[in-house]
DNA sequence: TATTGACTTAAAGTTCACTTTAACTTGTAT
DNA sequence: ATACAAGTTAAAGTGAACTTTAAGTCAATA
């Protein structure tokens, strides 16, 4: 099977121009062209799946390109690519943790507003602080100082 | 306790100029100023924690500002703010799911490279496709067509 | 008293990731 | 045959989120 740029764009939820842009940046390697038109085939989808992941974790295009260039060089870069994957796995773990903490913060906010709406006013909940450790802000920094009041 | 802009910037892992920028965009409400200098107090950290969350889930500043403006208006906007929170919770759920799928994809990649490195070549794993449903790409679109080869 | 360092604003500059535009080609339908 | 839809490139434009710069203020220290 083969697919046009529009079809692939729809599948990936992006504009065709975005895919052209990706291609121009060199992160859509080996896409076949017939009469100057891009034709996406099954083999391309393997990479599109990975690309989609990399975009999801906000990997910059420059880094994605780095990976693509390594892959093009073949077996001699296996270890380098492996290390990139391990590094990115750590990034995802961090992001997952951050997102989960955010989720808890928002669950707290949900309760907060439910309580406030029932009471008709925020005042009843305003001085209850969420005890969720979303931010390192809870740690007091070294160069702490007294209130100058 | 009170903190300088530099101290808060360090706690939040951003540049002081970023906090000034946030302030100029109106998403650091009610920060005290002494002799023109920003002084962050305990009450500000409640909001900074939430702001940090909102940044984490890539909420645009314009939307964060919307929320701040609603909060400024007081109890009459409780329901609106509640709805915003519910909506954002859904966004987080989606993002979490996407990230978890990416994590699986990267776990597969980890195995892929471990196997390839052991064998000294990618060829042994190259035609094994991950079966993880990271992308809707696996669904064949309506306007599918035959290979023109 | 002079200097240093951390702050201030307003405005301009930068970066990234697209998106749009303009001029053109190609394949399909009438 | 002609029109139209969908593709193409190169280059310019956009928007968001900072970041840098320039010129200045203020408090503490030598």
Question: What's the short story on this structure?
Answer:
Two copies of one chain form a homodimer. Chain A is mostly helical and 149 residues long. Helices cover 58% and strands 7% of the residues of chain A.
Give an overview of the whole structure.
Helices cover 58% and strands 7% of the residues of chain A. The first copy, chain A, has 149 residues and is mainly alpha-helical. In chain A, strands 1-3-2 form a three-stranded antiparallel beta sheet. In chain A, a hairpin with a 2-residue loop joins strand 2 and strand 3 (37-41). Chain A is elongated. Mean pLDDT of chain A is 87; it is low at 131-149. Chain A binds a DNA duplex (30 and 30 nucleotides) through helix 2.
As residue ranges, the low-confidence spans of chain A are 131-149
Order of neighbouring strands in the sheet with most strands of chain A: 1-3-2
Beta-strand share of residues of chain A: 5-15%
Structural class of chain A: mainly alpha
User: Biggest interface pair, residues each?
Assistant: A-B, 69 and 69 residues
**Main sheet specs of chain A:** 3 strands, antiparallel
Number of DSSP helical runs of chain A: 5
Q: Taking Cα atoms only, what radius of gyration of chain A do you get, to the nearest Å?
A: 24 Å
* Helix fraction of chain A by DSSP (H/I, runs of at least 4): 55-70%
Number of strands of chain A: 3
